[in-house]
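At this stage, I put together a protein sequence along with its fold in token form, as given directly below:
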Amino acid sequence: MAFIAASWVAVLAGILGFIIGLWNASTMQLNEKGYYFTILMYGLFAAVSVQKCVRDRLEGVPVTDIYYGLAWVSMLLTILLLTIGLWNATLAPSEKGFYAFAFLLSVFGAITVQKNTRDTQAAKSPTATNRDGINSEL
């Protein structure tokens, strides 16, 4: 239960910190704020997609190669776009670091929340599928 709470705190702290930082960024234009917000949302979606694809494949659930590849490309693309945006931004180095770490905390939190949600649902089901695809009683 503590790990579940910690993962929710991580994702919420990262997202709220990032968004509050954007809200208070007086030197940033609205289009820049929109760019960073979109990168955050896209990154959260990509992180959950990667986690789900990896876990599905480990459990023998079919995942198409195209979706698996798109999930990974999306995750790497969000990191690249954030890096390029922050590299070229006219922000103080401490602000750049703040956005980078808030993004990483959000992504980590999203992955762990997804994992915990899936683990909790699997624990509640009367049967679970092991890695060999064989149903067994819990």
